[in-house]
Amino acid sequence: MDELISQIADCLINSKNAVALTGAGISTESGIPDFRSPGGLWTRVDPGEFSIDRFLQNPARFWRLHLRLKESGDFDLASAKPNPAHFALARMEQMGILKCVITQNVDNLHQKAGSVDVVEFHGNLLRAVCLKCRALEPIAQAEARLSNGQEEPPRCQACGGLLKPDAVFFGEAIPSRALMISQVQCEKCDVLLVVGTSLQVFPAAQIPITVKLKFPPATVVEVNREPSAMHERITDHLVLGSAGEVLSRLSDCLEKKKTCTAC
I want to staple 228 with a disulfide (CB 3.0 to 4.6 A). Which of 18, 33, 199, 243 is the partner? Predict the structure, then answer.
């Protein structure tokens, strides 16, 4: 693996606009279960509960489910901490190598680790958004009002509108700003790090296809425990293993190579 890591490090050092695309697999090492694998969240919760139509039909029911998942520890994002994979990507950004992280995750762990340029493709479950005035507030504030015995779903403190977790529910569109930035990054991308995603959920899964179809095509590096659904079509370098271990070794290698170059 050392030789492959060194080759990937050379690609990144020579890149002008390296981008990372991350999925649930980068956060499982932080204790956050993914959604689709055996034992994932969808084996315990009906995915329909996270549809916008069902939310609007009975928002109070959804918020009770949200609190129950948090209190049981099944999906407590607020207490989760970044793992070595998140910190490694933040280090790559600080080195000036990684220009952007596009994440399908809603856990805020990239930001907690120190990454600055993060595109939240599916939103962020640590925030609540008002469906009327679009004001944002920490979701913990909305949860606190519910925990105090409030029977109705939490309301916006600015306008009284209905609050919803600021994540993309089934039936909702990807935020336009996230789409726009992702498209711009895809056009400029020359190396794409695909980390912890099965590439089965669109439109995020379109990103590696887009960077391979443009001219000149980007180099795609995939880091996964198992090959993604698209690895035969889009992957130039496949590294199987823990995202924390692989990305830590990669960032260490990058630092050594940059130090040698400076000398």
Answer: 199
